[in-house]
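Dear Dr. H.,

I hope your travels went smoothly. While you were away I took the liberty of generating a structure for the chain from your last submission, since the lab meeting agenda had it listed for discussion. I wanted you to have the full record in hand beforehand rather than looking at slides cold. The sequence, exactly as received, is reproduced here:
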Amino acid sequence: MNQAIWTPLSLAVVLVVAVAMNLSAETKPSLEFKSSPSLQTVVDRAANETLAKFAATKLETNQLAITFVDLRDRDKPEWASFRGGEQVYPASVVKLFYLVAAHRWMEDGQLPDTEELRRAMRDMIVDSYNEATGVIVDSLTDTTSGPELPPNELEKWYDQRNAVNRYFASLGYKNINVNRKPWCEGPYGREMQSVKAHKPNHRNWLTSEATARLLTEIATGRAVSRERSRQMMELLKRRPFDKDAESQSREYTGKALPEGAKLWSKAGWTSETRHDAAYVELPGGERFVLVVFTTDHADAHDIIPALARAVIEARYPTQ
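The corresponding predicted structure, in token form, is as follows:
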């Protein structure tokens, strides 16, 4: 298990950067994450139960990554991971990082807060539209897709495209790459040029730990500012018990929740991956973040709900 992103040094970096960037006075102090042996037992057991339950579908250990954050104490959450430091192609879960970056840029006056930008942000998160996400990436990095570029211009373009990476690196995030647009048919022109020229950063990469940290910061009002975190949460709010709700609400983690639970989440799915990053409030008042990444089982719709159910039953047996 890779714990590097939440070491004391990383947290110190967050505080230094916060002062240097003159963050809003509403921003709460950085979180202090505590590893928990008892929670680690819960996560390991849930992972092993899930692997056994789906053995017939050939679900392997290297196709699963989990991070669980217990938020009973919102200022000192406990957490545990199963392969949580492994890089995984995140599909649409990367949109969480672009959402936070957009609010950071707006807060700092680097990005105009326009009706069209807000429309794109909403469509990126609520409906997971890739075209909307492309507009956000272009706006954050002052880049555009288009025809191939001469080598020197491509390098300048790529340096600008790494603006979001630099931001999260300044906050102590490790082992991630967030500089690519999500595609439907695939990259063309300068996008494909850059894919070929910049391996291993030819794809977006996230870890379940980095994703869980970010979602925890949003849920506890620490991402950019309390007000901006609230606005992000509004976009992430789901309707798990509404039969007419979209799949991000009814499937994934939402499918495992007891009646009366509340859900905020961002799912991701491709022909290769099926992921969910969820913040949940249970009817009894318990709160947690659960991030589950699965690879090579995109059509196995029951893996994430089964794992979420196993975690909830083990950690909160009265639910």
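Two observations you may find useful: The CA atoms of residues 122 and 152 lie 35 Å apart. Confidence is low (pLDDT under 50) at residues 1-27.

With kind regards,
E. W.
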